[in-house]
Amino acid sequence: MAAAREELQKDLEEVKDLLVKATRKRVRDVLLAEKHKLEVEIKNQPPPTPKDAAEEDKSSLGGYTVKINNYAWDQSDKFIKLYISLNGVQKLPAENVQVNFTERSFDLLVKNLNGKNYTMTFNNLLKPISVEGSTRKIKTDTVLVMCRKKREEKWECLTQVEKESKEKEKAAYDTSDPSEGLMNLLKKMYAEGDDEMKRTINKAWVESREKQSKGDIPMDI
Predict the structure, then answer these.
(1) Do residues 88 and 113 touch, judged by C-beta distance below 8 A?
(2) Minimal CA–CA distance to 9: which of 39, 52, 44?
(3) Shortest CA distance to 128 belongs to which of 107, 106, 103?
(4) What is the pTM of this model?
(5) Separation CA 5–CA 162 (nearest Å)
(6) Mean pLDDT to the nearest integer, 55-71
């Protein structure tokens, strides 16, 4: 029974991949109908026997969970694409790599890869995505998460939080007074810089005080 469920799951994943590539309405309608049929079949599969359930629990709960922080991303007119590197992921059963999509988020779960589970969550995506049109692909040592854009427009970043952070940073230096913008930049450089950077800025401050004593404009940090 477990083997039948796995085969149905593989069929479903292939139909989802074809849906991503399909552009003709008639073809998409056929694929959507097949997708629904497979989902119903999977749902109606008899519950696993105790032995199957034990094996499934062992597969899904083995090891500990690692949060994925490293990824690369790019975009096309239709998709936001995230590339997550995981050695050997192509050797897992298809059902061990799961992605749940909502209109503004997705969760990736990779189960029992070399004795560990891996998770990644993206909330509050910058713009809405199509749940049905989004999918994932498993490549050699890589999981590719493909979020289908609802509107074919360029995203400047992945999440609303990233956008707000960039806007705040830009606003800190985008002032009507050029000298105020320079002061803000120097303060940030001093706060985040290493010892060498701080010595350089302190030297500039001392020199500015010397110029101030001669009647020049001061540079306070």
Answers:
(1) yes
(2) 39
(3) 103
(4) 0.53
(5) 40
(6) 70
Q: What pLDDT, on a 0 to 100 scale, did the predictor assign at position 140?
A: 95
Count CA atoms closer than 13 A to 151's CA, side-chain side: 6
- The C-alpha R_g of the chain, in whole angstroms, comes to 26
Burial of residue 29 (CB within 10 Å: 0-12, 13-18, 19+) is exposed
How many Cβ atoms are within 10 Å of 84's Cβ, its own excluded?
A: 20
- The sign of the dihedral angle between the CA atoms of 211, 214, 220, 221 is positive
Among candidate residues 128, 134, 152, the one with its CA nearest the CA of residue 76: 152
Q: What average pLDDT does this structure show over 185-196?
A: 73
State pLDDT tens for residues 10-25. Answer: 888 888 888 888 888 8
Strand 64-67 relative to strand 116-122, pairing:
parallel
Structure-token pair, residue 110: 């990779």
Q: How far apart are CA 163 and CA 43, in angstroms?
A: 40
